[in-house]
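Input sequence (462 aa), recorded before submission:
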Amino acid sequence: MWIPDLSNSVGPRYKAIIDAVDGAIASKSLQPGDRLPTQRQLAEKLGVSVQTVARAYAEAERKGLLSGEVGRGTFVQYFRPERRARYVADSEEPNIRDFSNIVPVLSETHIEELREAMVASAKDGAIQRMLEYRPSQGIVQHREAGAAWLERNGVQGSADGLIVTNGAAHAIWTAMASITEPGDVVATEALVDTSITINASILKIRLRGLAIDQSGIIPESFEEACEQENIKVLCVTPCYSVPTVSFMEEARRERIAEIARRHDVAIIEDDVFGPLIPNRPKPMLCFAPERTYYATSFTKCVMPALRTGFLAGPIPAIPRLISRARATGCSANTWTADVAARWLQDGTIDRLVEWQRHKLKTRYEILNHILGAFRYEAEPYAMHAWLTLPEHWRSTHFVDHARSLGLLVSPPDPFIIGRAVEPHAVRLALGDTNRNDQNFKEGLERIAALLQEHPDPMGTSY
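Predicted structure, token format:
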């Protein structure tokens, strides 16, 4: 049981407890998901009142350090928003080269297409649909267009089995909230997108990280987890997982689907990057349609502003999915869904996806040219790369050094589940945070130069 040492603390006891919690999380003596002593237990150990501990826990929860649940206890949060400050730019800053945020590359073509779509919607009466409440599942025309889009990506289904969402993250949240109950175990990649850890914290579910390689989740690791405990859901990104860019071949998808069926595990498949891949493998939904919830959107393959996504699931689960979607905002944004449907019908989506593929492949080639001497994982149509650091660099030290030089890269710690060892690697976003190729190239050259430097030893306080 974690008990803080307050012997050298000054000031109010409740603030000392908050500082101790924050420090323990920073030093990793407290890990995400760890359970803290009850208020009464900690009060007795520290010789303070229960009210003092209650005030400290409440303030720590407000700051995002802890999460409390009636009947279960108080736990360390999975995600701390303030950690982003080291490596994410809140606004445009001069001389900054931002490799921290995964967004598609944009151009004047995107702006012009969006402008024309808005004018067309105003002229043909579609604007009337945007002014009214619409079904939580989405307008039929939008779902039919979505079903046609999913079919082109290897997903067979009907508009009845589809829900329009505000992007893939909203779709994944809706599926997780529909399937899980507090305390359930969700298996996922050992390094996973932060949206999953945020969902787990809010929904009070426990994440189990599975071993991964360049092809994604290792089937034997999934099988072992299912045999050791009751896994309720497998949440998986087969195409270009964040942050490691793993890409799962079709045979492994089929094998993992078979394991899920044998152990009665539901599958949430995040396919937000899938549409970018020519001649892509079949989605996992094709191998286990009776238990798979498939999420995708246009935010990565087209543009961030087109925040329309689709969630496909087993027909018996659709009413429950609709109720969860309704709880997050009645229905998805009708305006962006109308633009998406219009572009799906006239071929604009296909043109913009093909443009994005070409641009990402160009940046992949630039990456290979500049960082070819270093170890990294990347794919021709991926929006990020996973860079392994040389032995003389630790990830935290490298991120801080890079930030001081105007280079923003993502450290590994936000992607780690539980007590896993922190890899000495960073994620590089390859998209529109560096709008033109020259800025992108110049930023990579600065990163390459930093990788070759040997940092000064980190000091120790005595």
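Checked by second reader. Residues 13-77 form a domain with the Arc Repressor Mutant, subunit A fold (CATH 1.10.10.10).
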